[in-house]
Amino acid sequence: MIGIIPKRTIITSTRSLSWFGDIFGGSKNLKQRQEKIEATQKEDLNLSESIEILNYQNSKEYLESIKNKKRIDYKIKNWKILNLKPYQIESYYESKEKLQNIINEQYKALTNQDIKYDSYETINLDDLQFRFDFIKSLESNLGFEINDYTISKSHNLKDLYIEIENQVSLRWKNERNPNSIVLRPDDFTAPNIYLNLERDDKQKQAEYNKLIAKMKQDQKNQQIQQNQL
């Protein structure tokens, strides 16, 4: 006997969600969610007052943090009176008298005493607070920082001056190539050796562009003056 297996019918139907599941489950649009909630409040629940929808922006903690937050407006003042770039230090302090004058002036500003280079060795810096104030005053007026090791080992003004003098006399080197040698014309005294100071093509083009821009600006200013007349 041959048996017949009945076919199983597969029926698909759309799953209906309740208004509660539809609002908080499938909808990704916040505006639509809010509209549905407001409509439900008015029609189905018959509420006299609407229910506030809480989120991060209107939460109690967030509102209190905004209320208690104080905006601080301040600007950091540049504490350096003079600010030199590394390649400017050696040429700026080519004269050691300029360096000594700054040291003498800052020492007098703190102690109200006049000093000279010959008396540097007799001036002790054992008072750490005074040493700190003096160093910071020097850094502000010299235009560069003095490293901590120099500060810690300089127990009198002569030692400090020698370290600062060595620092300003140090020949500047290109930071991109610390081992490079910086050559100057005064390094070659022989008549058959000279240093070619001619600029390369890139430097020439940059200088040319500056001159062209300046010429155009001068012409523009001249034309404005003529129009005003």
Automatic annotation (TrEMBL):
Keyword list, A-Z: Mitochondrion, Ribonucleoprotein, Ribosomal protein
InterPro entries found in the cross-reference section: ACP-like_sf (IPR036736), Ribosomal_m50 (IPR018305)
GO CC annotations on file: mitochondrion; ribonucleoprotein complex; ribosome
Subcellular location: Mitochondrion
Superkingdom of this protein's organism: Eukaryota
Pfam families, A to Z: Ribosomal_L50 (PF10501)
Protein family: Belongs to the mitochondrion-specific ribosomal protein mL50 family.
UniProt name for this protein: Large ribosomal subunit protein mL50
